[in-house]
Amino acid sequence: MYQQTLGKSGEGKLEAAVSCRGLKKEFAQGEFKNLVLRGIDLDIALGGITMLVGESGCGKTTLLSVISGLLNPTAGDLTVIGQSLIKLSNKQKVLFRRENIGFVFQQFNLLPTLTAVENVAVALLAAGIVRKVAIEKSSYLLDKLGLGSRINAFPSQLSGGQQQRVAFARALVHEPKLVVCDEPTSALDSATGHAVMQLLDQIAVEPNRAVVVVTHDSRIFEFADTIARMTDGYITEIRSNLRKR
Q: Could you tell me which residues come within 8 angstroms of residue 43 by beta carbon, excluding any fewer than 6 positions away?
């Protein structure tokens, strides 16, 4: 099991949900090496939505994957929720993600043979929560999201918007400190994308949680508290305090 070592301020609170210093990621391509992240310095605050923006291929998704422990950095320092991910083994990272990170994907990735409530409960069952408790907690969250009457429906019986809510519930049911979203609106029309971001803003943003959204969809920038722009593997601009909560 990993040992979490919280980096705290004088008031006993985390200084940042994520802290990157000199972060690099290199991929081998035959005899050649492709440096995708070229030295990222970035702090992501709790209590708001941070968007990673930039053109396709600039490194946004790679950075999100490194921050969430899905990829190992080549060099640099990375602290997430007070834990240095550099010091964790791959097995320890699995446990860390299970406890601390919620994922929202562009595709909902719901399991077709499970009901809505079972899809949400999977995260809790994987963490060793007994089934009765997992189902009760999942049902409660789905009810809060307006799906109380649909908890026993299968994904094929739900609308796209309802499936999105199930996906959000699955990402949040274990009360993660970090929620990461990869292009959640890129395949949606403007009105639907706006509604998705409103929902994310309402249910995911809390003082002790950070939400990170990778996007190239400028239509949703209005929901960002911080925008970090990437170009060719670098952070080239950071705009903070964009909204007053």
A: 15, 16, 18, 19, 20
Q: Which tokens in the block code for residue 221?
A: 């920038």
Burial of 202 (0-12, 13-18, 19+ CB in 10 A): exposed
Q: Any idea which residue has 């009901």 for tokens?
A: 115
Which homologous superfamily does the CATH classification assign to the domain defined by 18-239? Answer: P-loop containing nucleotide triphosphate hydrolases (3.40.50.300)
Q: Mean pLDDT by 10-residue block, N- to C-terminus, for the chain (245 residues)?
A: 44 76 92 92 95 94 95 95 93 93 88 96 91 96 92 94 90 94 84 87 92 93 96 95 82
